[in-house]
Amino acid sequence: MSEERLFSWHNRVVKRSVIALVALTIVSMLIGFIWLPPVHEDFTLEGLWAGICRAAGVPANWGSDNASQAGTSTSVVLEPAMARAGTNAEIGRGATLALNCTMCHGAQGMSRSDAPNLAGQYPEVVIKQLEDYRSGHRSSPIMEAIVNGLSDRDVRDLAAYYAYLPKARTAPTTYDETLPALIRVGDPLRNIAPCISCHGGVDQKLGAPWLEGMPKRYLVTQLKAFIAGTRHNDPGAQMRNMARAMTDAEIDEVATFYARKASNGEPGRAAP
Ligand code: HEC
Ligand code: HEC
Fold this sequence. Notes:
- It is a single chain.
- By secondary structure, the protein is mainly α.
- The protein folds into 2 domains: 3-65, no CATH class; 80-258, Cytochrome c-like domain (Cytochrome Bc1 Complex, Chain D, domain 2, Orthogonal Bundle).
- Helix content is 46%, strand content 0%.
- It is built from 13 helices and no strands.
- The protein has helices at 3-6, 12-35, 48-56, 67-73, 88-97, 102-105, 123-135, 141-147, 152-164, 181-184, 216-228, 238-244, 248-258.
- Helix 5 packs across helix 9, helix 7 packs antiparallel against helix 9 (152-164) and helix 11 packs across helix 12 (238-244).
- It is elongated.
- One heme C binds next to helix 11 and helix 12.
- One heme C binds at residues 100-101, 103-105, 115-116, 118, 126, 129-130, 138, 140, 142-143, 146, 158, 209.
């Protein structure tokens, strides 16, 4: 039998396998892009292209136009200018306004309860989160009520003040092997990037909060809220997708690590 005949379309085996392959591809696409995605309660049908991008873990919008994504998760457009250090006047005014926040977020932005620390938090994070509470993109009855009484200028001055306070503790700046694996190297097979490549330490992505020294219960609650979709203000669903790929044991491990205390039992202080 010549080689040509072996791979010819008229060869029945070849014909059947090609048909079987096409059918299998269509069935798996239907399952993967149409049937499975709506299982998540915060699923919104944005078309096949968005579905393919979500599955591959890449943004559906490669250009600068983020309008369609912003509609679903947040209305805040992060600008590098939001991350600038505040002036003395802004910090001073922010310090006065922050007297209304100490009850829960602590006198120096270090929470004594399960509310998040704000000391040293990146300014664009405080601005974005407060705006998200205001617009209802992130829900918390307490914070939604508080932010309603704040002007845009108040929000910016509060962010300047908290960014000026020393951070709870420093983050590891190397891929030290004593760090939990997800924090250090992530897990490429599950599309989890290393936490320290976004949350500070090795690198910080605009809008990713400083997590070092945060109360453990707060971190666990937020990760579980991303999984459930009750927190959905992360642009492009990046935290929701990573949290959903994590096991309960891993959530406990990373939260324990970020909440770790200095040897004196107090959250460690970063060098100024
Ligand atoms: C009665 C307690 C309380 C008061 C007062 C309060 N907060 Fe909060 N704040 C919370 C809690 C609880 C959360 C976490 C809510 C959630 O799960 O979304 C929070 C969350 C936040 C966040 C999000 C932090 C993050 O890491 O995502 C910011 C920013 C914030 N508060 C700023 C403020 C500012 C500024 C004030 C004062 C103007 C203030 N809060 C007053 C309890 C409070
Ligand atoms: C690709 C960048 C990126 C990576 C990698 C990443 N995050 Fe995030 N994470 C973000 C961004 C951005 C936000 C803020 C989302 C928003 O705008 O509300 C966030 C928010 C969070 C929050 C909520 C914090 C708060 O104060 O509101 C927690 C907790 C968190 N991430 C944990 C983790 C953990 C644990 C890992 C590693 C397993 C991780 N993240 C990896 C980008 C990232």
